[in-house]
Amino acid sequence: MSRLKFLLLSVFLLLAAPGFAQQVTVIRFPELQKRLSRPTDTTYVVNFWATWCAPCVKELPGFELVRATYASRKVKVLLVNLDYASQLDKKVKPFVKHRGLKSEVLLLNESDPNDWVGKVDPKWSGALPFTLIINNKTKQRAAFERELSPTELTAALRKFL
């Protein structure tokens, strides 16, 4: 293969890489609840967010940093999107692709937050962003009903490790 063809192929693959962003899985609350209550030693960092929430969007790079930094440890970042399921293809998937999110993204398909918000955390008012850090084996849990800087997020997570 000539150098020019190799270079062009390399550039094409690099430009196409954002197309391989994480998929978005649509789930219902009982499935999320079951997943978060597993008796495992994995620490879950669960961020509830929406594409229309400016503080949510602002803090997403911090969650991606945590995912990359702790990839070799038993830490799992879940980004739980709260846009309407009808917005999946039109808004959520393009957002995830454009931002190059690599963390697991779930779209919570529930119409009435009053049915499930208190089950995530009794002190959560439903405001976004909301972050839950949980380790079921050690019975540790921390909840934040506000935007977290990357430094704050990392400091909170370190208490679990």
Amino-to-carboxy terminus distance: 49 Å
Please tell me the CATH architecture by its name: 3-Layer(aba) Sandwich
Q: What general outline do the C-alpha atoms trace?
A: globular
In the CATH hierarchy, what is the superfamily? Glutaredoxin
How many distinct beta strands? 6
Low-pLDDT stretches: 4-21
Count of domain modules: 1
Main sheet: strands, sense, barrel:
6 strands, mixed
CATH topology: Glutaredoxin
- Helix share bin: 25-40%
Strand content: 15-25%
What is the C-alpha radius of gyration, as a whole number of Å?
A: 17 Å
Strand order of the main beta sheet, please? 1-4-3-2-5-6
On the 0 to 100 scale, the average pLDDT is: 89
Number of helices: 6
CATH class bucket: Alpha Beta
Look at the helices and sheets and give the structural class: alpha/beta
Describe the structure.
This protein is of the alpha/beta class. It has a single domain (24-158), classed as 3-Layer(aba) Sandwich (Glutaredoxin), CATH 3.40.30.10. The protein has six helices and six strands, in the order αβαβαβαβαββα. It has helices at residues 3-16, 29-36, 54-69, 88-99, 117-120, 150-158; strands spanning 24-27, 43-49, 75-81, 104-108, 130-135, 140-144. It has a six-stranded mixed beta sheet. Helix 4 (88-99) links the parallel strand 3 (75-81) and strand 4 (104-108). Helix 3 packs across helix 6 (150-158).
